[in-house]
Amino acid sequence: MAYRHLFGPVPSRRLGTSLGIDLVPQKTCAFNCVYCECGRTTDHTCERREYVPTERVIAELDDFLARAPDLDYVTFAGSGEPTLHSGIGEVIAFLKGRYPRYRVAVLTGSALLTNPEVRAALMPADLVVPSLDAVSEEVFLELNRPCPGLTAGRVLEGIVTFAREFPGEIWLEVFIVPGINDAEEELLRLKDAVAAISPDRVQVNTLDRPGTDIRVRPASRPALERIASMLGGNAEVIGAARTGQVMPPEIGEAGEIILATIRRRPCTPGDLTALLRIRPTEVAKHLRVLEAGGLVERVREKRGVFYRAI
């Protein structure tokens, strides 16, 4: 079976070896964050609907997981906001019913957590990782660039309500962009928000790959550690991904798989080697072909040369 809505397994900086589920077309989201590694939002919306066929997603998961791969998580992430898909609850219920050995994680920008239907859909998951990058409206608008009508207050309200109801783990992500949300006043507001949410963990993050806005640069490690200390005792700075034995690609040509991976997020050649278990020489060969064909371009960042889709 060709997998259209699954990616990986990949070594995640937070979740170990993770099989990704992509429920929306690229790039469908309630936000257009300046730092997003998936690129600029092209479908800027808060509308929930069945963006891709739910039955197809379930069939792909059933086919892949029937081989009993060694995974730390099955994760809803990918090209946009997964809770925009109206069938996410059905997919989670399938996973927990048919393959209970696998932990299910949902990464969300938190835009829809005020919706009771969304909160109910996420209840069977093991882990939800909501994002909260700003509390003041002006910083929220500059950093997250939400769809019309969405406010920082509503986002915070949704996370607090969800945290009270959810029986699983909540790891709150705070993404730091120097010069936008790292001022003392905003950090104090975030500290109060963290106290109201009371998550199991607070994960302080910064740019690891090229973002939407080329002016955005990563925060330094000392700055992140200072912010984590300020936000509370359960806050931590997200480290590098741990690599390990992951499944080699079995569907399609290596070049197609590399391009599909880069379309979801920029990667270094080393990232691709670790993610896909393809020899470095093979990765380099395919990248040259993709670059010559005008499908990818190079971008130099702090961590090295990244390739991103054009």
Overview of this structure, please?
With 310 residues, this protein is an alpha/beta fold. It has two domains: 6-246, Alpha-Beta Barrel (TIM Barrel); 248-310, Arc Repressor Mutant, subunit A (Orthogonal Bundle), CATH 1.10.10.10. Helix content is 35%, strand content 19%. α2 (88-98) runs parallel beside α3 and α9 crosses α10 (280-292). The protein is globular and about 50 Å long. It starts with 5 loop residues before the first strand and ends with a strand. The model is unreliable at 241-252 (pLDDT under 50).
Going by CATH, the architecture of the largest domain would be Alpha-Beta Barrel
| CATH fold descriptor of the largest domain | TIM Barrel
Main structural class: alpha/beta
Count of the separate structural domains: 2
Q: Report the span from N to C terminus.
A: 28 Å
**Number of helical elements:** 10
Radius of gyration, in angstroms, nearest whole number: 19 Å
Number of strands: 12
Main β-sheet, in a few words?
A: 8 strands, mixed
Highest CATH level, the class of the largest domain = Alpha Beta
Write down the secondary-structure element order.
EEEEHEHEHEHHEHEHEHHHEE
Low-pLDDT parts are 241-252
Large-scale geometry: globular
What is the helix content?
Answer: 25-40%
| CATH H-level superfamily title of the largest domain | Aldolase class I
| Order of neighbouring strands in the sheet with most strands | 1-2-5-6-7-8-9-10
Average pLDDT value? 88
Q: Which band does the percent of strand residues land in?
A: 15-25%
Organism: Methanoculleus oceani
Keywords: 4Fe-4S, Iron, Iron-sulfur, Metal-binding, S-adenosyl-L-methionine
Cofactor: [4Fe-4S] cluster
GO molecular function: 4 iron, 4 sulfur cluster binding; metal ion binding
